[in-house]
Amino acid sequence: MLTSLQQPLWQCAFRPLFTLTTVAAFLLMLGWVAFLALGWPLPPVAGGPFVWHVHELLLGFVLAAAAGFVLTSTPEFTRTPDFCRRVSAQLVALWLLGRVAFWSSGALGWAALAVAALAQLGFVGLLTATILPRLWADPDRRHMGFAWTLAAMGSCMVGFYWSALAGSADPMRWLRALLGLVQMLIIVALSRISMRIVNAEVDRVAAARPDEDIPPYVARPPRRNMALLCIALFTLVQWATPMWAPLATVSGWLALAAAAAVLALMGDWHVGRALLRRWPLLLYAVYAFMAAGYALIGLAILSDRISTGAGTHLLTVGAIGLAIYLVMVIAGYTHSGLDKREHVWPIFGSLLIMLAALCRAWTYLTGNATWMYAAALLWCAAFALLAWHMLPVWWSARADGKVGCDE
């Protein structure tokens, strides 16, 4: 009889962690819209319901997805064996403890909040300590960006929980900083994923047109590094603005610079017909939402006529939501012995995410709350569709008879 860790769910790290990501995406948004539309109560936490909402989406939904990705991709990038199943089990336990402790912190006080802090920091610490030796041992150390970004995210968590425990008036600024780091993590991750996804389509186009000289796609460091630098500077100045108000104008210009840098980064993807294929085009859309988000934030800060919420939700629902959705589908099929190209439903799920992002931004531009409820329902529909198709894949043995994370 199989032990619990020998079940198919645990044969690759992304399986349990992407399961948590999918369930969290659906339930957290459903709870949020029930609070907004029906007045249903949310767990009373330090900072109120809006802090709960942002905290859970970043440290619940996003963190589980990030862990599933890096634990699956690091052995592939470094050509090393899969990680021990016990690591993913420990991360799942810490993730669940973090949810329970944070949600109960309003009722149980500082002790529960301290437990939540230890669980979340333990999660990031364990994840970083697990991947760091392999990333560092790689001769070129090309993938150390994952470790540095996770360490920076851990620093933001320390700041958030310290502020919450001390009763700070603005713990949200640490979560805003965390949002910027997540955008940077997306850029680092997509630069790796795109090399395989885009070039696979370039090869198909080249095979169909043997007379044309079609160069391969290359994720060039200069444009990527410029985008990372601009986002980092904006994030830092935005974090510091509450301490010195004149920095607000600077942050507006830096947001526009971040938008311009992401648009320049998108230029690397212009490889002709291959870009118009399904997977490259959907991944390209992640950068489009990122650029639009920072552009709207910059305009909002400098004009003071619209809310920064429109741009922020293009970053969260659009860039983050779409990136995670696509990564879960691509990795979920590829590392389960299945061909992702055989399935059409991811296109519809991705379109639902994009429409949700646009509706959520439109809420701030029009002041009509109906669009906000529509956005939440579109988001829930997208992840319900993903759960319907992917959970049976992740909970079953590999279709090709292999064991582990091999492609």
Features:
13 helices; globular; 407 residues; single chain; mainly alpha
Write a compact overview of the structure shown.
With 407 residues, the chain is mostly helical. It is 75% helix and 0% strand.
Q: How does this model look, in words?
A:
With 407 residues, this protein is an all-alpha fold. Helices cover 75% and strands 0% of the residues. The chain contains 13 helices and no strands. It has helices at 14-38, 49-78, 85-103, 105-108, 110-137, 144-166, 172-208, 221-240, 247-266, 278-303, 309-334, 345-366, 370-394. The radius of gyration is 21 Å and the shape is globular. The model has no long low-confidence stretch (mean pLDDT 92).
Helices and strands in order:
Elements: H1 14-38, H2 49-78, H3 85-103, H4 105-108, H5 110-137, H6 144-166, H7 172-208, H8 221-240, H9 247-266, H10 278-303, H11 309-334, H12 345-366, H13 370-394
Helix pairs in contact: 1-2, 1-3, 1-13, 2-3, 2-5, 2-7, 2-11, 3-5, 5-6, 6-7, 7-8, 7-10, 7-11, 8-9, 9-10, 10-11, 11-12, 11-13, 12-13
Hey, roughly how much beta strand do the residues contain?
A: under 5%
Number of helices: 13
Write the H/E string, N to C.
HHHHHHHHHHHHH
Radius of gyration: 21 Å
Mean pLDDT: 92
Structural class: mainly alpha
The description of the largest β-sheet is: none
